[in-house]
Amino acid sequence: MGFSGGLPAGRLLVGDTGAVYPWNDAIPPDDIARYLAAGYGDSFSGDEFRAISAGTSPALIVVDMTLAFVDGRWPTGHSQTGWPAVDANARLLAEVRRLGYPVYFTKMYEDPTHSAAPSQKGRWKTVGRRLPDPDLPPGDVIVDELAPKPGELVVCKHHKPSGFFGTELAALLVYDKVDTVVVTGMTTSGCVRATAVDAFQYNFDVVIPFECVADRSQISHKVNLLDLHMKYADVAPLDHVIDWLNSLH
Amino acid sequence: MGFSGGLPAGRLLVGDTGAVYPWNDAIPPDDIARYLAAGYGDSFSGDEFRAISAGTSPALIVVDMTLAFVDGRWPTGHSQTGWPAVDANARLLAEVRRLGYPVYFTKMYEDPTHSAAPSQKGRWKTVGRRLPDPDLPPGDVIVDELAPKPGELVVCKHHKPSGFFGTELAALLVYDKVDTVVVTGMTTSGCVRATAVDAFQYNFDVVIPFECVADRSQISHKVNLLDLHMKYADVAPLDHVIDWLNSLH
Amino acid sequence: MGFSGGLPAGRLLVGDTGAVYPWNDAIPPDDIARYLAAGYGDSFSGDEFRAISAGTSPALIVVDMTLAFVDGRWPTGHSQTGWPAVDANARLLAEVRRLGYPVYFTKMYEDPTHSAAPSQKGRWKTVGRRLPDPDLPPGDVIVDELAPKPGELVVCKHHKPSGFFGTELAALLVYDKVDTVVVTGMTTSGCVRATAVDAFQYNFDVVIPFECVADRSQISHKVNLLDLHMKYADVAPLDHVIDWLNSLH
Amino acid sequence: MGFSGGLPAGRLLVGDTGAVYPWNDAIPPDDIARYLAAGYGDSFSGDEFRAISAGTSPALIVVDMTLAFVDGRWPTGHSQTGWPAVDANARLLAEVRRLGYPVYFTKMYEDPTHSAAPSQKGRWKTVGRRLPDPDLPPGDVIVDELAPKPGELVVCKHHKPSGFFGTELAALLVYDKVDTVVVTGMTTSGCVRATAVDAFQYNFDVVIPFECVADRSQISHKVNLLDLHMKYADVAPLDHVIDWLNSLH
């Protein structure tokens, strides 16, 4: 290839200081080298996390942190990764609320008992999806730990992955004069990714604190975070995101 | 329901008949089992490729098969995976044209010499992107082997990954009364994925012949195909896609 | 201008047979002549209604036929034009249901008691809007005469005029393989026009039976119907629309 | 609320001071009274123009000021209203450029010699549209008097009325952190209205200096401006718009 710029040998993304991206143990170094050779991933120095490069008017979008996704009693739930992500989101939410930035939540339908028509369900490859135990309450309810406060809007996605597709989210962000979105929630490879990509396409800066997103598949989680970090977003530790939010204030 | 959790032992996605999905060597069985336990991925029987489940009025969308992505002389190019994908797309295109289904191409800009403004380039994480050798011709040109024929439209994406975002593609598909899109091109984890997800969100059925898509990162290629197959699309061998297209006619 | 084709002298849009478009008494002949000179309005013969030119897979979209718009007890209501439009819509709905075509309704919010945030209300020029009498029931409820049947979907617009903006309507039409939309409801110059223009932009054929739309302003009603008929839609008598729907079956 | 129904007698929109909205001679007082009774139109005092109520980060969108629309040699052209609107836009452009606010233009296609496919032309009611004289140059070219300067982007609409539909315009406005759009150009009842309504739907404030918009039909021009002013935008004299832009600086 004749690639001559780029990184010093042997210093891919994480260095002796111990900074660790979630994908570090899963991505072959050759794959990362090929991204960097093409000029993706911005200016990695190789021995620390990449600095957050974003705007000055942020908002938080918490994607689908509902019982049905977080809690293992539901067939779509992931208690092993969902509940730790709840804790991380609770910490982030407290900071964002204290700083006074707008907060939006997404979930599927306004009415959690909603019985969707086939045209509303769409083309999901989930013909054989198990129904939840009928004794459980409705699952499309945001978990108590992250319950929206008055004035925090819940955007309903009508069974689609992106928080922007077929919703008023872009218009809400314009109204609130937001230029940067912090995207969290579940699942990394599904609704989080689709929402982050659309935010990027609308030219919002996108920041993803990696402890605040979760998935049922660890390999999908890691690779999707890498994809996002190489092209569309800054994936960063929650501590860095909180420091950066405070620095804007 | 009779579903008792997971697949029969030893029959994950590929069986004794030798059907091989591209992700087979890269995804831990536990990750796939977790998808299936949640009801994603439709009705895998485990010993053969999943049948294509789609509509009856298909169109082909060839994403970004331009010199800049296919050819290794450009810094964003991938000759090792791009040129084989060109061959597979050429075979598919010949069939689709013979059958008379609509064909659309995407690329970045109408004018390949376009010098984009910062607001057109958007928020890509490619600050350090290398420029192509100035002696090369413009790279945003579809490769000769796949050159559009008269009547086949080229949709320009203005530096965004999805063929639908900020373009007339959805309206073209409505005009042509399409209900199913076959999505091919480059890169799997970038513009192909974003285009396939948006097609799914518009409620088109989505089919992806895996030999016709390519990426710079093999792990991103494989995991994104798995994500798509579990949730949004039928990922299938080109032979199956061609058989299915002929069966519709 | 040198315009030489076009209409026979003195036979603009309506002829001796008595066909009467709603705008006939309000639009100066010069204005219509200027449209026709520019090639708008398709092939008016001048002595009869223009034939409906549309697809073969229609659906009905009933826009905002809620108490708050139909009924004069609400400050936004128009009992003098709203209730006659209810009767015309009831007749159309009965035919569409008998023929088995899809029906969609729009209104503002899923929950008619919704208390919208400022960012949800948006930029309406209605600072001084009167509140309805607090003794009235919620107004964002479709009138009983047109109540949706099971399987007929209600699309919520979140305080925006177009039934497509920020909603899943385009995706629902794709799912149902619709190529033509019959748009009715209130108000002609507001939500009906915005919905019809977006349907046109998505390349659906648009048909508007003029008895089924209504407005608070007669001049806005008439001029908006003319605008639509000259450029984006077939505005036609309800009888013609019903005959055309039956002819497709 | 203290609102007792309607305006003080004899003070509809324009008063003794001579403020004159373009629709004043065309709209029956009853129609305006009905708007105001429903709470539309914000707080008219009745004896002067309504003050502009908008954000602090404006941009200018000049819609379709091309030869084909401005110049009477083209069948779609309107030299009697188009050329005066060019003069007004030239004055506004000079101010906006001096103040350093972003400027965007729209027109149909990047390549003015474009030969659109039927699916690109869409569903226009213009079957009988006259072709321009073959000796004329391409018409989809912005008039010299308003030619874009380097850095001012031209957004191509692909034969659709709204500058937002199927274009990157919303994303460009987000990138430039715009909260208010001044919309001008041609035609008032076509592309200007559709663009203004979409800007409103995205929650941008919308301002329309009435001398800077034009139409082939005077009644459509006037009624569409009234519709916009009652619901979605501030329609104001160019002098007021220029004063307001200067006041922001």
Give an overview of the whole structure.
The structure is a homotetramer of 249-residue chains. Chain A is α/β, with parallel strands linked by helices and 249 residues long. Chain A is 34% helix and 13% strand. Chain A has helices spanning 29-37, 67-70, 79-99, 118-121, 169-175, 188-201, 218-231, 238-248; strands spanning 58-63, 103-107, 153-156, 180-186, 205-209, 213-214, 234-236. In chain A, strands 1, 2, 3, 4, 5, 6 and 7 form a seven-stranded parallel beta sheet that branches. Chains in contact: A-B, A-C, A-D, B-C, B-D, C-D. Chain A binds chain C through residues 110-111, 117-120, 122-123, 151, 153, 156, 158, 160, 165-172, 175-176, and chain C through 110-111, 117-120, 122-123, 151, 153, 156, 158, 160, 165-172, 175-176.
